[in-house]
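can u pls check wat happens w/ pyridoxal-5'-phosphate
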Amino acid sequence: MAVKFFDYQREYDTLRPRILDAVDSVFSSGQLILGAQVEQFEAEFAQLVGARFAAGLNSGTDALSIALLSVGVGEGDEVITVANTATATVAAIRAIGAIPRFVDVNDETLQIDAKKIAAQISAKTKAIVPVHLYGNAAPLSELEALARDHNLHVIEDCAHAHGSKLAGKHLGTHGSIGCFSFYPTKTIGAYGDAGACITNSAEIYERLKKLRMYGFSGEPVALLEGRNSRLDEVHAAILRLKLKSAADYFSRRQHICQIYFSKIKNPHISFVKRSLPNQDTVNHLFVIRTSRREQLMAHFKQSGIGYGTHYRYPIHLMPAYRFLGYKPGDLPITEKSCAEILSLPLYPTLSDEEVEQVCAVANAFRG
Ligand SMILES: *Cc1c(COP(=O)(O)O)cnc(C)c1O
């Protein structure tokens, strides 16, 4: 039995009539951009993640750029982040002319190593962008302390972290702004590109809304230098349907991870540790580590098991970012882990039998 790494079509088979109704009602409503669907989606998403405000945007990448702009980060400012993330995190920082400063990660959790941040802070540093990798929490209390001491904003990359909490509070509500992606594969996925920022600050929220539409506030007069990053009504309507099942999606993911944790037993395979004891985690990705990745990938391929690598290429060594001046060996733990990680299938429509099949194939790997 083959198991796909990701399969939205199974979900579509069940949601199809409701999605088509939602799309039809938007197309018939006479309002395609920034209407009732976006407004209601924002209220419902904010409520789901326990934030005062949410602003719908057109991608997770834009959510990060616009979040940074909204707190005054711009050309030439430095932003601390990691290199074992989606290229999007770095592209978003560069899109506003800011400069990423990379920090290595903790060897067990693969989250930003808070102890190594201070050495990267300069007079130009304006923000830290922790990535809650796989849906596990970055060390937020240490980051908040550093941010207070150095007058920095914490802008959380929550593209993997829908539904995850730390100390009872949703990820994305600990820093100044939480940035979400609703790319189709994400824990809450649209049927196209979409994103959002959440915040508890009314002032930041007002700026986010201006920045997503040319800097306008009502009148077509630019009060800030903005851009176009609106969430479409049609995606908002589909996302509202998905939000209704969010609790089920979260618990199904947790259940699948429990099966992986309890049934995978192979001396060649280890788990990425969850970061902190007081987190209630909803994983977007289930990631294992092995020093024999090429062989394990071949083994999965031969058995029809889909897999991914998040992330295989450390960003500081990518050709496009050579100008930043990093070289191999600068982030040793990041570089080593990028060669060891492998993501297993994880999505709500996966059956227990399929998950157990993945475990059986993993356990049959002989290195
Ligand atoms: C998906 C992702 C993004 C970007 O989201 P898009 O909606 O694809 O622009 C940013 N950061 C991380 C960690 C992601 O996984």
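The pocket of pyridoxal-5'-phosphate is lined by residues 59-61, 85-86, 88-89, 131, 157, 159-160, 181, 183, 193, 195 (CB under 6 Å).
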